[in-house]
């Protein structure tokens, strides 16, 4: 490897953002020749052929997939010893950290995730003298109690548009349940006096493909629901139903949630910005936080729903009139009693249809720990929570993508990977 060429290591490469990061690096973002090597690290075993990344060609960086790395075990030295037998860890210049594991107890969740990141940083501090940049995503969420901007508290905490400096004003009893605060302390201490620097990006809902399921993928959750709903109403993959009456599917939530403003981000946009930031350490480093979304203009789930349903040949409509759940007292994971079948319950009931129709992976690679929370998205997110993209734009990074585009591109990938019909 020449002095100028870069080696990116992506932890959590099978996750929503991690997959997109590797995808973008192999798609030659920011340009051919910037990275000569990409190492993709995952926890669960997975074959390269199941990842659906771009095929190798003479211009793409050399890719190495290292599976079975459980970061919860041991310490940084043990991780370093294990990695150096598999990976050219000494040449690593860029660390992208996209790992997250959900744990029932909030404080334990913080401790577990903090330890995993600490192991990674310690390992690279020991063995990667060429390290230049570390990037990780925070989020408007950070635990089941609260989050970066407090959107898990009923009604939210701050008045939108949410701005980066607000995260410093979280109520102190919440701060201890926010793992991102711990990540910042860890990186500040580890980078002091070193030649590498770091940044954090803050997405709200992330829309993107994962080959192996995901804990909190709203796109996968709704895609599997809409796919089975269309199948049960005799509508074929991606084909508009013409022979019978149009089939309607209600937004799984209440009116306030359908009409509240928010700023979704496709995993592609997040991945691109993380790479962009890491190429501009002076402008974007020093522990800065950047909000990230596809478009400065916020959108509404109620409007998006129509376009998502249409992709499956269905007609999206507003919340069911029968829903009594119009107030904003629900918390993450809570559902009104009058809800008929939620998307998660519907998928659980009918998922055999995936296997019967040649998509066995759709059964084993669905949504994990976040199922109930994703079912409740349409009930508790009843308040405006759009983000300011002023700082992002000032960094020189351009965003102006149609937010629905990220969903539809993701649905295409789910179908290609056999995760929906
Ligand atoms: N999803 C969202 O909408 C959203 C929104 C805002 C912020 N965020 C933040 O973005 C970050 C990434 O979340 P995500 O939703 O992208 O997660 P995700 O799709 O569930 O991916 C998590 C990744 O972490 C890896 N991982 C889990 N446990 C591990 C372990 N013990 N050792 C090594 N790797 C492990 C997983 O690997 P395997 O697949 O191999 O197990 C997977 O690659 C989190 O900090 C999250 O809070 C997410």
TrEMBL record:
Higher taxonomy: Eukaryota, Fungi, Dikarya, Ascomycota, Pezizomycotina
CDD domains membership: 5beta-POR_like_SDR_a
PRISE-like Rossmann-fold domain: residues covered: 8-419
Alphabetized Pfam families for the sequence: PRISE (PF22917)
Protein name: PRISE-like Rossmann-fold domain-containing protein
Domain of life of the source: Eukaryota
InterPro entries: NAD(P)-bd_dom_sf, PRISE-like_Rossmann-fold
